[in-house]
Amino acid sequence: MTKQVVKLSRVVIRFAGDSGDGMQLTGDRFTSETAGLGNDLSTLPDFPAEIRAPAGTLPGVSAFQLHFADHHIMTPGDAPNVLVAMNPAALKANLKDLPRGADLIVNTDEFTKRNLEKVGYPANPIDDGSLDAYNVHAVALTSMTVEALKGYAVSKKDAERAKNMYALGLLCWLYNRPSQGTLDFLRSKFAKNPDIMNANIAAYEAGWSFGETTEAFSVQYEIAPASMPAGLYRNITGNPALSLGLIAASEISGLPLFLGSYPITPASDILHELSKHKNFGVMTFQAEDEIAGIGAALGAAYGGALAVTTTSGPGVALKSEAIGLAVSLELPLLIIDVQRGGPSTGLPTKTEQSDLLQAMFGRNGEAPVAIVAPQSPSDCFFAAIEAARIAVEYRTPVFILSDGSLANGSEPWLVPDAASLPTFEPNFATGPNHTADDGTEEFWPYLRDPETLARPWAIPGTKGLEHRIGGIEKADGIGTISYDADNHDKMVRLRQAKIDAIARTIPDITVDDPSGLARVLILGWGSTYGPISAACRLVRTAEGSVAQAHIRHLNPFPSNLGEILRAYDKVVVPEMNLGQLALLLRAKYLVDVISYNQVRGMPFKSDELAGVITDVLENL
Amino acid sequence: MTTNTFPALSLVPKADGPQTAKDFKSDQEVRWCPGCGDYAILSAVQSFLPDLGVARENIVFVSGIGCSSRFPYYLDTFGLHSIHGRAPAIATGLASSRPDLSVWVITGDGDALSIGGNHLIHALRRNVNLKILLFNNRIYGLTKGQYSPTSEQGKITKSTPEGSLDYSFNPVSLALGAEATFVARTIDSDRKHLTEVLTAAAAHEGTALIEIYQNCNIFNDGAWDPLKDSDTRDDAMMRLVHGQPIRFGKDMQFGVTRAADGHIEVVEVSSAGEGAIIRHDAHAKDPGLAFALSRLANPRTLQNTPIGVFRDVQRPSYDRLLREQVASVTEKKGKGDLQSLLNGNDTWNVS
């Protein structure tokens, strides 16, 4: 039958099902085909910490949201236009986010009495009129998949498991996505099991054909490619982007990359990714605990490696003492904190920005460290290189504060030219740096570079530089143990001054204010960049004037930040915490910023933020 | 000696010329209490290091926290005085990434067995190329006299005025249980034996744990006296020598035999017969005998205490395996190309 084709500007789809239903894979494949078509896109996986919670229950629901458009977009979307619900639990868990009039595709086979009871539906919502506000497509996905796979050499269970590919085929038809990439993917993934491969391919194709022939779907949609800067693109997720950034930093500097890490959600994928690239000389060490992870990294840094430890908030807590040692030893070290909901175990798979103050102050003594925060999944790549530059040039631990939404979210990435990446040099110490009163040439491990205040990086194996250092306070310059009061006061101030000096090498913060008339500044950091940008866009579309700035360097702050803050009548700081950046800004600049906070484990919704901004504008 | 004596140091650059103990003394004033057993160990190590024949700048001493952990300051090598209990972890990162270094860990019974117990056992099972010198004085010294994990049960200390309640660790048993490939015990005051054990450890590829009975003359003086007094030591202590019958005593009157039920015990050689005495086999694949020997001593009286190398077996070190894996992956895939990595496998062009 001929179907009507409707052109859309943008769509938000959410795939939701049981943890075992393969929703993340389905979402990934749809994303990949969408990226290849040239749409701009942004994704948000949302899955439980449990690997397989009991089937059909609310805790077991796993979802993947994808926003794609024919124009530049900033977020994974506030609310889905289409919800694919593979079972009653998925419907119940996600329906509250679905706006009236949205498309709802439900797998009717799973809406059995038992499954409905499991999640507390007294009656079948498909039949009882409770979904009347939505455009419901009731599709027997499981049984049609099984029917389509009759004659294939797979068990009924395996046939049922292919229902996600049937759904993917249907959605790919509905939104006119190409199939080739998915078919190639299935051939490669199941190369060792041709029966499963053939069944999945057949399920995908059956889903596509169903869309084309059924009367249940009368409209097919098209979303034209977005206009994007020319070049070679790939889709990239935050954790792999960060991993590539670390490898690039290693190649740029010529320093071997050493990762000491203990598995923790949502940071483990960096360990997984780096482990795949040993042909870049990457050394990955899965330690016995978080402390050993950073300990080994610090040992490797002492030996002249580009040393990294990856973790999340609870791991940072365990690493605190070793970070303090790294501050005292003044060695380059990257501490990557992929933040998640806290305190304690908190929400392992959800996102939050609540480790800023831990990174800033979570150590005994005055122990300043540099902090860099990426603002989007692909920006994790550049943040890693920038953090490595600071660590190496200033001989200091540097935090990278990523978070769960950056780690698992994806976006198209204009692949950079490796030859044009910024470079930096290790500049190892090679010989004595001080002449004693008697004329002897000596090596002083704490004699500082006058510009950066960095001490020499003198690695073992360098003749004539034998020296002893440790966590005990050292005499300025010569570096021997010192309990002298004046010396300690001086060393504490020097360590702080060194971190402050980094500000000279970081760019001024820039403000985006197309009107040039804004009296209100929205200031954020980290992964809130997308929602804040989208919110500012919404406000401006409604003729509001608002300025936006985003902080990448959280310690030290860019040199012009105070000036920028004072240039606006009001400064709004949205954060996924209870106001940690706001606290720092108020303390340092005495500016009464307005803190807007949510700690729901999910990114901000841009229309909510737009409402917050509009309220501030109206009350000026 | 040349580096050929130490195959485990084959990747470490050799010294330009002969070295002496003086070359390894740093300019720092030693700050242990007068009479501390650490002085004897320091002196023995300073005299021993020239025997390695490797460049001084390629030797690194890493320590944790405690009296013993000040050790690196007094050696003119590279030295890293770290945080409590973590030296094995830090040294693991260093040794794994730098095969051209000879890496030594200095630790104590509190540092290694209490706060750092986890790192110690994992370093041992991984068999990283580290030599761990565990100074055991059965007391906390730097915090001024609390009981330690090797203190005998019932010990009266500042924190246990009515006597400690916990059972103690036996460091040699612990190390053997943790899959260690080299485990030895020696005594601070026996310089010759200490040097022999250090030499054997240096030759070993992988982690070596050397427990050194060390006297804290301030907080636990005389802890090892039965093994030091000339009147008692010969009857209390057995010296393990690979391939030799395990015999000891003033007149070599005691020996170790295996009883009918399989356990080992100390007997009078005259009654058991020379043929019944077990020969020590440090190279035995099975750690059973080494473990049984580690259990012979009475922790309170120190009767039947073995010293020497309990176990010394070959297993590729972690750092060697790490290097080999990097090399084999690189050979298989070719040296990594950054641009190809950035591009990935799934790209599209926007024109």
Supply the key terms:
heterodimer, A: 620 residues, alpha/beta, seven-stranded mixed sheet, six-stranded mixed sheet, B: 351 residues, 12 strands, 29% helix, globular
Descriptive report:
The complex is a heterodimer of chains A (620) and B (351). Helices cover 36% and strands 20% of the residues of chain A. With 620 residues, chain A is of the alpha/beta class. In chain A, the strands form six sheets. Chain A has a seven-stranded mixed beta sheet, with helices on both faces. In chain A, helix 17 (529-541) links the parallel strand 20 (520-525) and strand 21. Chain B is α/β, with parallel strands linked by helices and 351 residues long. Chain B has eleven helices and twelve strands. Chain B has helices at residues 37-52, 87-97, 109-115, 117-126, 171-177, 191-203, 233-236, 269-272, 288-294, 318-333, 338-343; strands at 59-63, 78-81, 102-108, 130-136, 182-187, 208-213, 237-240, 247-248, 254-258, 264-268, 305-312, 347-350. The mean pLDDT of chain B is 96. Strand 9 of chain A pairs antiparallel with strand 12 (347-350) of chain B.
